[in-house]
Amino acid sequence: FQQASISSLSSSSELDSTKDVRSRKEGKMLRTPRDGATGRTPQERQPPQREQEPPGRGPRVVPHEYMLSIYRTYSIAEKLGINASFFQSSKSANTITSFVDRGLDDLSHTALRRQKYLFDVFTLSDKEELVGAELRLYRQAPAAPWGPPAGPVHVQLFPCQSQLLLDARTLDAQGPTPAGWEVFDVWQGLRHQARKQLCLELRSAWGEPDSRETEARARGPQQPPPPDLRSLGFGRRVRPPQERALLVVFTRSQRKNLFAEMREQLGSAEAAGPGAGAEGSWPPASGSRDAGPWLPSLGRRRRR
Amino acid sequence: TTFTSRHGKRHGKKSRLRCSKKPLHVNFKELGWDDWIIAPLEYEAYHCEGVCDFPLRSHLEPTNHAIIQTLMNSMDPGSTPPSCCVPTKLTPISILYIDAGNNVVYKQYEDMVVESCGCR
Q: H or E segment at A144?
C-alpha cells in the first residue's frame, strides 16, 4: 500500500508552467509560455490552472487549491483501487461542488461585526442527495491585536435573517494567531434553503460559543462591544482568489453518465437550435446542423 | 463432436485475435471538451476486441448463455453469430470540471475504464 496523500503544489513556478487561462465564451486558450517538457506523462502533468473568479465577472475559472487537492487525492486513491467515497472527508459523496463567495464587506459601518457570504447555488440539482456542506473561510493573521480581550472570542454562523445557529468557533484570544482555514458545517443551512442563492452571516461575539443570545444578551456596562471581524482576520477587502471564501457542497447523484453534463454544457454554450435532439437524447438527433460541439463533425474538424 | 477445420489452421484466414483488452487513449482536448474539463485532459480507457470462439477460456468469464451461443456458432456458423467480446469489469475516474454556473466541480464518473473483457 502507498500512503495516498494530498500533494501540495511544489512551487508556484510549476503552477505557472502549466497555467493556461481560458476564456470559455471565446473557447480560445491563451497559453502562458510553457517551460521545457517537464518529462512527465500527460496524466501526471498538473491540471491546468484557471482563475476561479466570482461568477458573473469573467468567464475565467481557476480551480481553488482545495478542489485541486480533492481531485488529486481521490484520483490517486482510484489508481490504488481505493473507493474515494470511503474517505471520511468525502462524506460518501460522488460529487463535490465548490462555489466562490460573491459577498463584499459593508464598509459603511465603523466596526464590522457581521459579514454576509453569498453563493449562487442554482446549479445544484435537487435530484441529488445532499450529504454535506462546508463554509471554508481563510483567516488572515490579524495585523494588530484586537485590543484587550473581554474573554474568549467567538465567531458564529447563521443563515441570513435567522437565529438558527449553524456553527460556531472559539478563537484564541491570547498570543499570535496563525493564518489558516476555518471550516464551518453549513449542511443545515443548505437543507432548508431553496437552491437558488445561499446567504450566510458570520457574527463575532464574546462569551459562550453556542449561546444564541450571546450578542442579544444585555451586555454589562463593563463589557466592550464584540470585536471587529477584520481584526480577527476575516476582512475581505483585498483577497487573492485562492483565499476567497468557498462553499463546498457534497452530494451523491445516481446519475451515472457523462451525457447530462454535456447537455448542460451544450445548453450553456449554445441556445438549443431547431436541430437539438429530443430531451434526454445524446447526441442530438441526426440531421441536425451538426453533431454537437464535442464531436468533430464529419469531414471538417470543428474546434470550439 | 464439434466441426473442426481439417488443417487445424483457418484457410487463408490469419488467426483472429481472441477477445482481450486493447489500449484506447482518450484525449478530452481532441474531443473539444477541454473548455469545461479541467482534469484529467486525457486518460487510458482501454477497449475490448477479438473473437469469442470455441473453446471459451475461463478468464473470459462467459455466461452460460454465451457458452451455448458459442457452441451453436461453432457447430453451425449460420445459425447464430458468436458471442460478443465486451467489458466485464469497469472502474471509475475522477473528473474536475466547470459546471454551467462557472463553479468548479469534482465528480467521480463510474464505468470509465475497462479493467477486464469477456464473452457475453
A: none
Does the structure show a pLDDT above 80 at A249?
Answer: yes
Cis peptide before A209 (omega within 30 of 0): no
| Residue closest to A146 by CA, chosen among A137, A159, A156, A155 | A155
More confidently predicted of A238 and A207: A238
Of B31, B39, B109, the CB nearest to A71: B39
Task: State the average pLDDT over residues A118-135.
Answer: 90
Question: Helix or strand or coil: residue B39?
Answer: strand
Q: Dihedral sign, CA of A266, A267, A270, A273?
A: positive
In sequence order, which residues have a C-beta less than 8 Å from that of residue A37 and are 6 or more positions away?
A: none
Judge whether residue A46 has pLDDT over 80: no
pLDDT band at B38 (very low <50, low <70, confident <90, very high): very high
With residue B64 as reference, give the H or E element that holds it.
Answer: helix B64-75
Residues 6+ positions from A295 with CB-CB distance below 8 Å: A283, A302, B31, B32
Candidate ranges A4-13, A170-179, A186-195; pick with highest mean pLDDT: A186-195
Find, among A236, A3, A53, the residue nearest to A140 by Cα. Answer: A236
Contact: B99, A100; criterion CB under 8 Å = no
Residue A256: list chain B partners with CB under 8 A. Answer: 109-111
Q: Which residues pair with B42 in a beta bridge?
A: B27
Residue with cell 446567504: A199
Given A29, A63, A94, which is nearest B96 (Cβ)?
Answer: A63
CA nearest to A165, candidates A198, A130, A202, A137: A202
Chain B, 11 to 70: residues with Cβ < 8 Å from chain A are: 31-36, 38-44
Grid coordinates representing A217?
Answer: 444578551
Q: What is the Cα gyration radius of chain A?
A: 23
Reported ipTM: 0.81
